[in-house]
Design a protein that fits this description.
The complex is a heterodimer of chains A (233) and B (575). By secondary structure, chain A is of the alpha+beta class. Chain A has helices at residues 33-43, 78-81, 104-112, 132-137, 155-159, 165-176, 184-191, 205-209, 216-229; strands at residues 2-11, 15-26, 63-66, 69-72, 84-88, 95-97, 100-101. Chain A has a five-stranded mixed β-sheet with strand order 2-1-5-3-4. Chain A has a two-stranded antiparallel ribbon with strand order 6-7. The longest helix of chain A has 14 residues, at 216-229. Chain A is elongated and about 60 Å long. The longest helix of chain B has 25 residues, at 497-521. Chain B has 16 helices and 22 strands. Chain B has helices spanning 14-23, 61-71, 78-98, 137-152, 216-223, 251-254, 268-271, 281-293, 313-319, 321-331, 393-415, 427-437, 445-459, 466-483, 497-521, 539-542, and strands at residues 2-10, 29-33, 49-50, 112-120, 125-131, 155-158, 160-168, 171-179, 185-195, 228-229, 234-241, 258-260, 304-307, 340-349, 353-354, 360-362, 369-375, 380-381, 463-464, 530-531, 544-552, 555-562. The chains are: A alpha+beta (233), B alpha/beta (575).
C-alpha cells in the first residue's frame, strides 16, 4: 500500500527552521513505521536522521511521536496507524536533528535516583535468596527499556525538566521494592524532594505511552504510599 | 580532539560492560559505543545464561563442557570450553550479586530451564541449566551491567563510531573515532584497547540481528592486519518470525514447545530421536530447510510452525511474555491459541578476532599476542563455540571472557608504556569520510546492501556448495567495486547517520568475503558450515581453525591452526 509520511525535519546546519516534509513510501500493511522511515532514508532522502537498532521494541532507540502518540517506530505497524502518518520528535527534550533528541537530561535523571543495587552485606558464595513472591513485587518495573516514551509524554516534565520523570521513578521502584536492596530509604528521600514523585498529577499519559505496558502510574502511586506510610523492609 | 585513558573499551554490550566493571576503580577506563549503552544487542537475548548450578536437578560443569564440545562439532578448543563452563557458575552469581532479577524457584534460588543441546550425563536427556529472567535475560543482564557501571562511575562516550585501530611499532595504542553528533574525528590514545563490538548478522537478509550489527570492530581489526578466525561458521537460529527474522527464544522449546511441518508432524523426532526439538541449532535449522525443500512447509511454503498452544496461557504469558508480545504485535496472532510461523534466521557468528583465554588478541598460527589489543564477546573467537554455538553460551561467553579480558588488561596496563601515536593517524578515516561524501560514483549504499543481503542468503547461508560460493565470490567482487563508487547525499556534520551506514556497509562487504573464502576452502560439513558437495565431517583434514588474512585489495590468504583437544575425542554427533 502507498502511505504518506509527514515528518518534522530540523537540522541546525541546513534547515534551522523546523518544518514538516512529506514523503511517499510503498509498504505492506504489516510493515513497521520504522520500515517506512528506512525506505525514505535509503531511497528518497538519506539525510533523514533518527535512532534505531534492534527494530523489535527492546533496545528503546526509536521513541517518537507517531500520529500524536508517543510510540516506538519499530513496534507500530502501518495497519495500526493508517496511510497518513505524521512523525515528530519526542516532546520534552531538546531536538538535535530531525527525530533525534538530546537524551543526556534523561539519563542524568536516571542517575539521580541511584539506579543500582546497594547492599553492604557481603553476598553469600551462591546467590542471594529471593522468593518468587518477593521477586514478583517489582517484576513490572524491571521491563523498562529506557526509551523515554513515558517521560516524553508527561506534561509536568514538559514544563519542569527538574522533575525526575516517570522513567527514573520506574527504575527507583525496581530497586526500592527489591528485597535484596538496602537503600530504599535513601531513594525514597530523593523521591520525596521537590523534583520527586509529588510532581506527578496522575495524568496516566506515561502508562499509556509505555511500549512495554508497564503500569507506570501505579508504580509512582506505590512509591507515594511508601513515602507516606512506610512498609518497605 | 585528543582523548587519553589507560584503557578503552569499544562496545557497551555484555562483554564490554563486564570488562568495564573489572577495570573501573583500578585504572582509568572509558567505554566508547556507537549507540547508547542500553541499546546494545545483548539486551535482546531472551532465554537464559547456561551454568551448571544444579538448582532444579543434578548438573555439573563437566556435562556442560561435554555438551559445548559436542555442540561445537568438536571444533571448539576444549581447554577454553572447560574453563568457560567452570567459570560460568561464578559469572551467574556475579550477576545476581550485582542485582540481576533472575526468575526464582520455590526455594528462592535462581530458576533454570531446558535449552537446546544441554543434557545431563553426556547426552542422556535434556537438563535444566539455563538461568533466566522470564524471556528477557539479556535485557536484565545489560541493564544490570549498565547499572553497575553507573555505580562504578565508568566514563562513557556514547554515539561514537570507531573507524580505525591505531597501531604503532606492532603495539595497539588506541582508536580513531567519528563523533556521530558532531561529525568530528577524534584520537583515543590508550595503553590497552578492548574490542567488544558484537556481531555481523546484517550481511544476511533474514536475521535476528539489530540494524547496527555490522561487524565494524572485526573489519577495523582485519584492515589493520589481524586475521579473522573461523568465519565460515555462521549460526542460523531455527525460530525466527517468518520473513522478519525476529527471534523466538529456544526457551519456548525448552518450556515444551514443538516444531511442526505442513503435515502436522513433529519432524524433529526423525532427525534427533533422543532430544528432538532441543537438538542444537545447526541441526534443527538444517532439518527445517530439508522439510521445506521436500514440500512439507506449511501449505508448501517456506516456513514451519512453532507450536506452543499445548503449554497453556499461564506458562506462555508468565515465562515467555516478550515473545508472546512480539507474536501478537508483529503477526497479529495469539501464540496461546495459534502456532507461530517460523523460519531459520541468521543469528550468531561463531568466528571473529582470534584471542586466547584471557582476551588477548592473537595474530597467527602460533597464537602470538598482539600487545595492547584485546577482544571479547561475539566479535572475538576464543574459540569456545567452534562450528556451532549452543543456546545460552553467548551470554556465558560475554560474562566469562569479558571479565577475564578486563582482569588481563589491568595486569597489562600495570607494566605497559603508553606508546606515542603517529602524526598522521587520522588520515585514513578522514580520507574515507571525504570519499563517501564526494559525489564521484553515484552508487547507492542501500542498493548494494540489499543485494549483498539477498545474495548471501541465497548462496552462503544454511546450505552451501562450491557453485553457490563461487557465485557469491563473483558477486562480492562486483559489489565491492560498486562500493568504491558509493556516496551519501547528506554532506552535513550533525548526526549524519547516512555516512555511518555507508561505513558499516564497507565492513559487511569485507566480512562477507572472509566468510565466503573460508567456506569455499573448507571441503567438509561441520556444525553450521554445511557443504552439500562435501556432506560429511572430515576430522583427518579439518580439525583446524581457519584464519583469514587480508593481503591486498583483491585477495585473502588462509592459514590454519589446530583445535585443542583434551578430554573428548571427536565422535559422531547424534542426539
Amino acid at each position: 500500500m502507498d502511505v504518506t509520511l509527514k515528518i518534522r525535519r530540523y537540522d541546525p546546519e541546513t534547515r534551522p527552521k523546523p518544518e514538516f516534509v512529506t514523503y511517499r513510501a510503498s509498504v505492506e500493511p504489516t510493515d513497521r513505521v520504522l520500515d517506512a522511515m528506512n525506505y525514505v532514508k535509503w531511497y528518497v532522502d538519506g539525510s533523514l536522521a533518527y535512532r534505531r537498532s534492534c527494530a523489535h521494541g527492546i533496545c528503546g532507540s526509536d521513541a517518537m511521536v507517531i500520529n500524536g502518540v508517543n510510540r516506538l517506530a519499530c513496534k507500530t505497524l502501518i495497519e495500526d496507524v493508517g496511510a497518513k502518518i505524521t512523525i515528530a520528535p519526542l516532546p520534552g527534550f531538546p531536538v538535535l536533528k530531525d527525530l533525534i533528541v538530546d537524551m543526556e537530561p534523561f539519563f542524568a535523571q536516571l542517575r539521580a535516583i541511584k539506579p543500582y543495587l546497594e547492599n553492604d552485606e557481603p553476598p553469600p558464595i551462591r546467590e542471594r535468596l529471593q522468593s518468587p513472591e518477593e521477586r514478583e513485587v517489582f517484576d513490572d518495573t524491571t521491563k523498562c527499556i529506557l526509551c523515554a516514551s513515558c517521560t516524553g509524554s508527561c506534561p509536568i516534565y514538559w514544563s519542569n525538566p527538574d522533575y525526575v520523570g516517570p522513567a527514573a521513578i520506574v527504575n527507583a521502584h525496581r530497586f526500592i521494592f527489591d528485597s535484596r536492596d538496602k537503600s530504599a530509604a535513601e531513594r525514597l528521600e530523593i523521591l520525596n524532594s521537590r523534583s520527586g514523585v509529588w510532581r506527578c498529577r496522575t495524568i496516566f499519559n506515561c502508562t499509556e505511552a509505555c511500549p512495554r505496558e508497564i503500569e507506570v502510574t501505579k508504580a509512582i502511586e506505590e512509591l507515594k504510599r511508601a513515602i507516606l506510610y512506610g512498609g518497605i523492609g | 580532539m585528543y582523548f587519553q585513558h589507560d584503557a578503552i573499551i569499544i562496545g557497551a554490550g555484555g562483554a564490554g560492560l563486564r570488562a568495564a566493571i573489572e577495570l573501573s576503580g583500578k585504572v582509568d577506563v572509558a567505554v566508547i559505543s556507537k549507540l547508547y549503552p542500553t541499546r546494545s544487542h545483548t539486551g535482546t537475548a531472551q532465554g537464559g545464561i547456561g551454568a551448571a548450578l544444579g538448582n532444579d536437578e543434578q548438573d555439573n560443569p563437566e556435562w556442560h563442557t561435554f555438551d559445548t564440545v559436542k555442540g561445537s562439532d568438536y571444533l571448539g578448543d576444549q581447554d577454553a570450553i572447560e574453563l568457560m563452563c567452570r567459570e560460568s557458575i561464578q559469572a551467574v552469581y556475579d550477576l545476581e550479586h550485582m542485582g540481576l532479577p533472575f526468575s526464582r524457584t520455590k526455594e528462592g534460588r535462581i530458576d533454570q530451564r531446558r535449552f537446546g543441546g544441554h543434557t545431563r550425563n553426556f547426552g542422556e536427556a535434556p537438563v535444566r541449566r539455563s538461568c533466566y529472567a522470564a524471556d528477557r535475560t539479556g535485557h536484565m543482564i545489560l541493564q544490570t551491567l549498565y547499572q553497575a557501571c553507573i555505580s562504578n562511575k565508568a566514563a562513557f562516550y556514547n554515539e561514537f563510531e570507531v573507524m580505525d585501530l591505531i597501531v604503532c611499532d606492532g603495539v595497539c595504542c588506541g582508536v580513531v573515532a567519528y563523533e556521530i553528533a558532531t561529525g568530528e574525528v577524534h584520537t583515543f590514545h590508550a595503553k590497552a584497547v578492548l574490542f567488544a563490538t558484537g556481531g555481523y548478522g546484517k550481511m544476511f537478509k533474514v536475521t535476528s540481528n539489530a540494524l547496527s550489527l555490522t561487524g565494524d570492530g572485526l573489519a577495523v581489526a582485519y584492515r589493520r592486519g589481524i586475521p579473522l578466525e573461523d568465519m565460515e561458521f555462521f549460526q542460523f537460529h531455527p525460530t525466527g518470525i517468518y520473513k522478519m527474522g525476529i527471534l523466538i527464544t529456544e526457551g519456548a522449546r525448552g518450556e515444551g514447545g514443538i516444531l511442526l511441518n505442513g503435515l502436522g508432524e513433529r519432524f524433529m523426532e526423525r532427525y534427533a530421536p533422543t532430544i528432538k526439538d532441543l537438538a542444537p541449532r545447526d541441526m534443527v535449522s538444517r532439518a527445517m530447510y530439508m522439510e521445506i525443500r521436500e514440500g512439507r512447509g506449511i501449505d508448501g511454503k517456506d516456513y514451519l510452525h512453532l507450536d506452543l498452544t499445548h503449554l497453556g496461557r499461564d506458562v506462555i504469558e508468565k515465562k515467555l511474555p516478550d515473545i508472546t508480545d512480539f507474536v501478537r504485535t508483529y503477526l497479529g496472532i495469539d501464540p496461546v491459541e495459534t502456532p507461530i510461523p517460523v523460519q531459520p534466521t541468521a543469528h550468531y557468528g561463531m568466528g571473529g578476532i582470534p584471542t586466547d583465554i584471557d582476551g588477548a588478541v592473537v595474530v597467527d598460527e602460533k597464537n602470538t599476542r598482539f600487545p595492547g589489543f584485546f577482544a571479547a564477546g561475539e566479535c572475538a573467537c576464543v574459540s569456545v563455540h567452534g562450528a556451532n554455538r549452543l543456546g545460552t553460551n553467548s551470554l556465558v561467553d560475554i560474562q566469562v571472557f569479558g571479565k577475564r579480558a578486563g582482569r588481563e588488561m589491568v595486569n597489562y596496563i600495570g607494566s605497559a608504556d603508553l606508546v606515542p601515536v603517529p602524526e598522521d593517524v587520522e588520515d585514513w578515516v578522514r580520507g574515507e569520510i571525504a570519499r563517501l561524501k564526494s559525489d564521484v560514483g553515484g552508487e547507492s549504499v542501500a542498493d548494494i546492501r540489499a543485494e549483498l543481503q539477498s545474495e548471501m542468503m541465497a548462496n552462503a547461508s544454511v546450505f552451501r556448495t562450491e557453485k553457490t560460493l563461487v557465485e557469491m565470490q563473483k558477486k562480492l567482487i562486483t559489489l565491492k567495486d560498486r562500493y568504491t563508487r558509493a556516496s551519501v547525499q547528506d554532506k552535513g556534520h550533525i548526526y549524519n547517520t547516512e555516512l555511518t551506514e555507508a561505513f558499516e556497509l564497507g565492513c559487511l562487504l569485507e566480512l562477507a568475503e572472509t566468510l565466503v573464502v573460508s567456506a569455499l576452502a573448507r571441503t567438509e560439513s561441520r556444525g553450521a558450515h554445511s557443504r552439500e558437495d562435501f556432506p560429511t565431517r572430515d576430522d583427518a583434514n579439518w580439525m583446524k581453525h581457519s584464519l583469514a588474512y587480508r593481503t591486498d585489495k583483491s585477495s585473502i590468504r588462509l592459514g590454519y591452526k589446530p583445535v585443542v583437544v583434551t578430554k573428548f575425542q571427536p565422535m559422531e554427533r547424534k542426539y
